[in-house]
Design goal:
- By secondary structure, the protein is of the alpha+beta class.
- About 50% of the residues lie in helices and about 15% in strands.
- It is built from seven helices and ten strands.
- It is extended, with a radius of gyration of 28 Å.
Length: about 325
Amino acid sequence: MIFSHENTFLPDENSRLKAQIKALQRRLTVATEKERRLKRELIEEDLSYVTVSSLTKLIQDPTRIVEYELTQMQKEIFDKMIATTEACCVREIISYHRLTGRSVFKFKGKRNCIRLDTFYDKSYKEPYYIIYERDVNESSSNAFSTNNNLLIEHHTIPPFIHLDTLQAQFLPHDFNTFIRIVHAQIQAYVTKRELLKEVEDLSLLYPVKIQFQSESLHKMEIKLSLEDVGLVYIDMGFSDKSSAYPTEVSIRKAKGEKNVSVDEEKLFLQLQQSFKKKSMKNVFYEVLNVNDDPSDMALLRYQRDFPSNASPPIESMEF
């Protein structure tokens, strides 16, 4: 889409350099994760090779082995098969636990540690941990100590998630609700953070820019240039901390723009409802006519990583 409005803006050279650095960091992260995955696959292949090699050495020629020796070898083969199967089952169970996003394991004495995984766009993001003292008199491994002073000892939860308030409200009696709410708020924060990163990527080629975002991402303001409308500011508030969808959305035209017409009011109302029901990324894609086709997105990433090869801007905006 080409914007003919005089306020259409494009990033400066400094922003492009920062974007290139971020792109390189992300590519490094992807390469590191791929290296880990390949190493894990190599270890699994080595385990299979060792198992098969050991079995081959045990059975060189069964026709020349007396019956009691064959029985002993059968036992060794069976033991090795059981050990290999158990190892595979453990790895599979750990994977299933991670898919749920929550896992609990013992940690130093009578303490437990809860791992809360976060996700975005079919990939894992950073995990968060809560270490608490369990009640040794309780049969459940998840049970909290009844001493309120010894509930949560350590955690990596961000400070804007009010853990003390939730702890006072739900612990020690409603452990599952407490963990569910904390996990939902962490996941909502990670989702909003990753969505804003994608909006930032869009700003390299499209007239959209993040003006403000609070540390908790409960409030944000985004500047957008709309064709036939001009420059607008979109303010979003997230009263529901467990959701990545804003509960309050307001859209206003920039100072100096013409008064809002009836058609523009309808457009603003439609956008407000879209932000509350759809992914922020998808709404901006629709407004800016960004095609989510893989080949088109590859071109967008190429232009982001190599801005010197991108088409020269028609007009620019001073911030």
